[in-house]
Amino acid sequence: MFRQTDRHFKFDWVTIILFLILVVFGWMNILSASHTGITIDYTNFSQPYGRQLIFIGLTLILIIFILSIDAKFYERFASLIFIVSMLSLVGLFLFGKNVNGATSWYGIGGMTLQPSEFAKAATALAVAKYISDLNTDIRTFKDQIRIFIIIIIPAFLILLQNDAGSTLVYASFFFVLYREGLPKIYLTLALALVAISILALKFGPIITSVLAIVVIITNYIIQKKKPVILQPILTVLACVVIAFGIKFFYQNILQPHQQDRISLWLRLEKDPQKIAQMRRDILYNLYESEKAISSGGITGRGFLEGTRTTGKFVPEQHTDYIFSTVGEEWGFLGSVFVVIVFVLLMLRVLKLAELQKSQFSRVYGYSVASILFFHFMINIGMVMGLIPTIGIPLPFFSYGGSGLWGFTILLFIFIKLDSNRINEW
Amino acid sequence: MRQILLFISIIFVGLLFIARLFFLQVYQDNSNNLYEDNAIRKVYDYPKRGFVYDRNGKLLVSNQPSYDVMVIPREVKPLDTLEFCSLLKIDKEQFITTYKKAYTYSPRLPYVFLPQLSKEDYAVLQEKMRKFEGFYIQKRSLRNYETTIGANVLGDIGEVNQRIMNKNPYYKMGDLIGMQGIEASYETTLRGVKGIKFIQKDRFNRNIGPYKKGKFDTLPESGKDIKTTIDATLQAYGEILMANKRGGIIAIEPSTGEILSMVAAPTYNPNLLVGRDRSKNFTKLYNDSIAKPLFNRSLQGVYNPGSPFKLMNALVALQEGVISTDEKVTCYAGYKFGNRFMKCHCRNGTRNDMVHGIQESCNAYFATIYRRILDKPENASIGINVWSDHVKSFGLGNFLNNDLYVGQKGRIPNRDYYKGIYPKTFYSTYTISNAIGQGEVATTPIQLANMIAAIANRGYYFTPHIIKEIKDETLDLNFTTPKYTTIDKQHFEPVIEGMLNVYKYGTAKYLQIPDIDICGKTGTVENFVKIDSVKTQLTDHSIFVAFAPKNNPKIAIAVFVENGYFGSRFAGKIASLMIEKYIKGSITRKDLENFVLNHSLEDEYAKPYSGVPFKINRETKLQTIPIEEVNKLKEQLTKLEY
What we know:
By secondary structure, chain A is mainly α.
């Protein structure tokens, strides 16, 4: 309905309004989670809520800048942007600043910048650029490998900085590739991998292997068009290797705190005393955040009225655990509102992506929706105790300049691309 | 499929989150109650507990400050334990065990390290307290009994237990609550309402500031003072008279139902249950299973009423018209029914009308009228129910439903009660013991006193109560509206005449008080215990009921002395003395007083536990008290004079 011939109105205002709702509501919750006294001084820039106000101001300038650049620029310079972004990640090993055990920040003056937040947009551009190339056919193994490499590079660099959560986000590109024609076998393999991993951890690799063998043999027998006998044998072998591999990975490669998180999530530990101990030690955040969310009830305690929020019971509440503030102060109604706004935003981006005439824009749009979805799923799922603790921010909501700017760039490049869809070249 | 995978995933995760939110925030029981919010610290401000006065305005119970040493184990810094222990007057072992207990209870929460310091210890400790981090002194208010009497009337306060806290969320750990007596019955009046401050905590348990600027904070509301109906002097007098005996005295003002005194013997000094030694002393009292000082015999002691119950049967007989006041009944030194015989102390051939029947307490007379009551309708099954209803209208056989913390129903049987023993046939002779207050009828002293009050009032009573006045409050209507019995007014006069004759010519003629027309009735109650599973008779209980003066009665009294033998030996004397003390304020019958003070029944009470055969009633010798003991009691008496 906003779509008019006037060039100022050809941007998709629905997306922009949803974006603004999240940013404003997010800031209100950061205020709740970080204000310390009875009085609130908005110009107190030593406090997160004051600083976030500056970040939001800078974001608006950033948006104008992104939207004013020619749409073609992003496609044309996608590779360059990607390379620069990767270099910024590599640079961390030389100039990076260590915060909380992760070397993910550049310190510039009093500010810190986290290049991994920008790398997502850069990778999305690169993936879109590569897939939309006329010579690329995603159904060929060669191109699949190349695309994987594009995605693996930033994921690997970020993992080396000890930021496992952000690494996981790169898995979201699977949705993009699948949409663009990645063979179905990958989906099957991905689901099988997840299933085997969980089963192997929960019930042990031997039971899992037996189960896999039974399933595969049954499948082979009922199939009408029987493949060569070698295929099921290899599949069985792969399953067994994965089952034992996962167990080994869990026991010998994961760090103890990561083991504990998974152990609690899958309820591997049987000793109730030890479980209680683990809950107290490593799931303190989760325990407090669930409690804060529950205490909100249906209508919540009201803005700035949450006792657990005011008392700072939930550590990191203004960053990764920001959703618990929504839960306590705005209750069930407010929390559902936030969930719905996120869902609408992602679906809107998804719909616009499908409408794109250029493959580049479509793939990029799809990447945006996928990345947002992963953050949304992991962050809120974690805060509510549905998945193991993985520390990644809630887009537009969590405190932090880099995160906000990273997501803004990600989203607004797409809005710009979308605005250009009518006068496609 | 390829286009909708992400779409479906987004919708699915969205719905999953909403479901989880619903579970956490709506389905789970999470009260928004500030009281249960552990992010809010609740600080209570305790109001002053109300004082208790006697009916003449004499202060009985007030408050005294007390100081507890508290500890928060986590905040304790290394300290000079030796100095600390010597200040607290404890040894090092005790310090270590208490500290460990406190730590096990909770490292973060305050724990009572040493309760109730004396004022002197507090004064010394207070100056040095700052040296001992993690310890602090908390002021509390304890009861201060201005008297040594009335322990079972006044009751005591103690710390709430988990059961009370579960039942009533007003009470929190360490709060005090009335446990017995007036403290328990008037708990809410006396305690007031504590004030509360809500303070926002952070996750390190530090105070941040008042929650919502103190919007929900409340101020404490002081407890109200109460005036009881007890006459402190009469109460004290009663307790002195009951020294070395067991039993109870209940005195009621018939025109109001106010309880003038409520003595239960043996008793104890109420100050025993205050302060640091409360639980030690309480355990001692509680474990005394022979004397049972915590057992309020005047309220909880259920006994056969004995002869005083004959008054009841006389009234019912008159109301039912089964006998006239003039009709004479012949006593054959007993009453023969079927092939059984109930003995009586009358000479064979004595002919008693009602007044004389009461005066002489003739068993045959009352057996006769009891049977007539039961046999008046077509059968005794109906008759006993008619009888039972009349008796119950005097407040017997059921709880009085008053403001006393303990009580017993007693027992007034009806046909249903006997169904178990006599399922088919039922004749009036089966229950003839009820005629003379033995058998199945059972009452508590307070019920008997109330019965006498109803007789004194000629047909109605006010529920006996202990509250006289609460400031700015009107008394419960239950205490101020008369309850009418089913006996018509005119039937009381002959019975009262009989009671007057008991004093003039009858079993209490040696108990007369000059210038006061007392109406009374003695009672001697047979009683049995099982010793090594052999039913053994003990010395009779001595019982006495009376009211005075005859016209415009001021006091109705029931006295019960366990194993005191015949009614006028102990109970009658005590009743007369109490009446004289109350009405005249001084005692003219010093002879009666001396007898009561000089004699003890402790030997009597020791008999069943002695393990050797013993004699009872007539064959026993009265135990006298050494003169020093008597003088001590007399000294107490002199302090009582108005």
